[in-house]
Amino acid sequence: MNFELETASVPGENLRRVAIDPVSRVEGHGKVTILLDEDNKVHQVRLHIVEFRGFERFIQGRPYWEVPVMVQRLCGICPVSHHLAASKALDLIVGASKVTPTADKMRRLMHYGQILQSHALHFFHLSSPDLLFGFGSEVGRRNIVGVAQQYPDIAKKGILLRKFGQEVIRLTAGKRVHGTGAVPGGVNRSLTADERKELLKDAYQMIAWSRDAVRIIKELHQQDPALYDHFGTVRSSFMGLVAPDGSLDLYHGVLRARDADGRILFDQVDYQTYDRLITEEVKPWSYMKFPYFTAMGPEAGWYKVGPLARVQNCDSIPTPFAEHERRELVAYAGGKPLHGSLAFHWARMIEMLFAAETIKDLLHDDDLSGTELMAGGERRREGVGVIEAPRGTLFHHYQVGDDDLVTMANLIVSTTNNNQAMNTAVREVAKQYLDGQEITEGLLNHIEVAIRAFDPCLSCATHALGKMPLEVTLVDAEGTELDRKYKA
Amino acid sequence: MSTVAGEDGAPVQGHEAPAPGSGLEAVVPAPVLVFGWGNPSRGDDALGPLFVDAVEAMRLPGVECLTDFQLQVEHALDLRGRARVLFVDASADAAAPFTFERLEPARDASFTTHAVSPQAILQVYCEVEGELPPSCWLLAIRGEGWELGAPTSATARENLRAAIAWSQTWLAQG
């Protein structure tokens, strides 16, 4: 725990501040502020994320049926997750407590397509440069172009995995972007036999490449356990959805949480009651809220979500290759949960494999070509939809008036769930790597590597040309700016 | 559901794989690609998609229009088989109403999944495909505001109209 850092005094005597803004290769803008004393000892670290402003205001007042499409514009990185979480919440508004088998499987296929393409992007194009070249390597090489030059096969696999995932999304959502496939109560399309056959041509290759990716990250762990086991370690509780039988399910299930030692904190919780379980704390220095388990309080109740939480939270994975890999991870960990930030990558690749296998299985299921697309029932005023998005648990909660307009919206996005964990990881890394040392690009990148491991979705801000400089600011104890650098 | 997996990766029980062959590789692309990106609900960030909408409405033969929230690495594959490509984005820095420039492959140290540059897309194409990319151009339309839920500004809409008018000549080159 590092709350002592958080409560440190504002820049005062004998302190100076290093700000890195934004964190390069993280999705969107982030700003890391490291407050140093005159001996370059870390005194205070904060991760600022400003992109999540205005979500609820954007949704409130809209007709509920518009919401599954509109919420995709909250995030350019995982629009499908918002599309599906909103649809699940609004299923309840139209009384569809259970959708048809065709709707359920079409949505699942869309979701696992999203998981596949998102995880592929993160591993092959965001993290692999750090992992393959080393965190301190030359920055001009440590990017996807560098990977493509030195490891063209790896780069190409990453691109084709993403392309496949997006093709799955296109066919299930109706369009490459701004899809409309899921609607309150079901879906508006199913797949033809030819579409399923076309996707199946590539599905087995995607499984094979996903297995290769797991092998790569597993070998990296085994080659350097000192680094991979301990870098950016964040011991905390963790939470996610599991199927009622305890197996991994990223689309639907019940909430389960474990403590840092792996003991169950709660299980089989209906996510409609999430607001009795979780409190969202506001802090004056950040636009992002800090959720925690209410029963444990803010200092002990914060938690992790995402791949590392999910793979260690479930009892099994219902596809054979991914389950085999899960067991290897559990065996490597020696019966206790892994908490090192870099273990996220290993878990993420196991999930990518799970997604590839699930896509293949779904494509063989004739329900995908069914004609029963919609369900309904008694109209309700309130609904919660939860999904395991690529980055973690995503909550959408709506209230709808008799005039069909949304009167209340509350979203807890995955990155918000990980907010305290990311802050803690950054502090740990800063204390380990920056104390008493010169501030070099390689050292600063260790901070970024720790953040990237969580794959935070900071993508909601505009990306327009000219709006994405990397800004580095150095400010002394009195608040005087000593230096400022831009990297466009 | 498959329940047993062989060490070589082949499915032992469950489903037979279809004959090898990639659906991803099979499409014959139109010679001209217009690719605009941006978030339609973030003010002037919508300029790229709005431009694409306008070109799509022209129904020009041999011209394919694509759009996305962001430029991503896999878009390098959209360059395959093209003669000419026009990338279109909103820009906070471009001179009004728009700028137009030839793109060359370039390394880009500022990679994010949020903002891969078009130059970097071309570089990835070179590395992955082992050949030079097609002739690629960037149309950067000047924008002013970027807030979630904001409409496009009047100035940006004027700039967009100018860009669409200009594009008729470029697109007519075939």
Search tags:
A: 488 residues; alpha+beta; 5-stranded antiparallel β-sheet; 4-stranded mixed β-sheet; disordered N terminus; B: alpha/beta; 24% helix
What does this structure look like?
- The complex is a heterodimer of chains A (488) and B (174).
- Chain A is an alpha+beta fold.
- In chain A, 43% of the residues lie in helices and 19% in strands.
- Chain A has 17 helices and 18 strands.
- Chain A has helices at residues 3-6, 55-59, 67-70, 79-93, 101-133, 144-150, 152-173, 193-223, 225-230, 274-277, 297-300, 307-313, 320-333, 343-363, 414-417, 419-433, 441-453, and strands spanning 15-21, 27-28, 31-37, 42-48, 182-183, 186-187, 237-242, 254-258, 264-269, 278-281, 290-293, 303-304, 382-389, 392-400, 406-412, 457-458, 470-475, 481-487.
- In chain A, strands 4-3-1-17-18 form a 5-stranded antiparallel beta sheet, with helices on one face. Chain A has a 4-stranded mixed beta sheet with strand order 9-8-7-12.
- The longest helix of chain A has 33 residues, at 101-133.
- With 174 residues, chain B is an alpha/beta fold.
- Chain B is built from 3 helices and 5 strands.
- In chain B, helix 1 (47-57) packs across helix 3 (154-172).
- Classes of the chains: A alpha+beta (488), B alpha/beta (174).
- At the A-B interface, strand 2, helix 2, helix 5, helix 6 and helix 7 of A face strand 2, strand 3 and helix 2 of B.
Main pleated-sheet profile of chain B:
5 strands, mixed
**Structural class from helices and strands of chain A?**
alpha+beta
Number of helices of chain A: 17
Order of helical and strand elements of chain B: EHEEEHEH
Gyration radius over CA of chain B? 19 Å
Unreliable runs of chain B: 1-26, 110-114
- Tell the overall outline of chain A: globular
Q: What's the multimeric state?
A: heterodimer
- End-to-end Cα distance of chain A, whole Å, is 35 Å
Strand order of the largest sheet of chain A: 4-3-1-17-18
Question: Whole-number average pLDDT of chain B?
Answer: 83
Total DSSP E strands of chain A: 18
Rg calc of chain A: 22 Å
